[in-house]
# Entry
Amino acid sequence: MSTREMAYNILADLSEEKVKAFITLFGRGFDDIEEEEPDEFDKELIADSLIDNDESMPLEDFINSLGIDINEI
# Structure
């Protein structure tokens, strides 16, 4: 089954309400989303993301820190 066929099958199984939500999210594309200037909080997050940070942990450890069983993902 092709990817397109799988998508059609998923869409066919959705309720009318969920189809409307899908169309709201994906029906028009993203060209009509207005560009917005970042506020101060956004600017802080952007600046923080640009800092080279060597703090890291294995994905499994992060998942465990969230209290999620990796076998359930």
Remarks:
- The two ends are 24 Å apart (CA to CA).
- The mean pLDDT is 86.
- The helical segments are 3-13, 16-26, 40-50, 59-65.
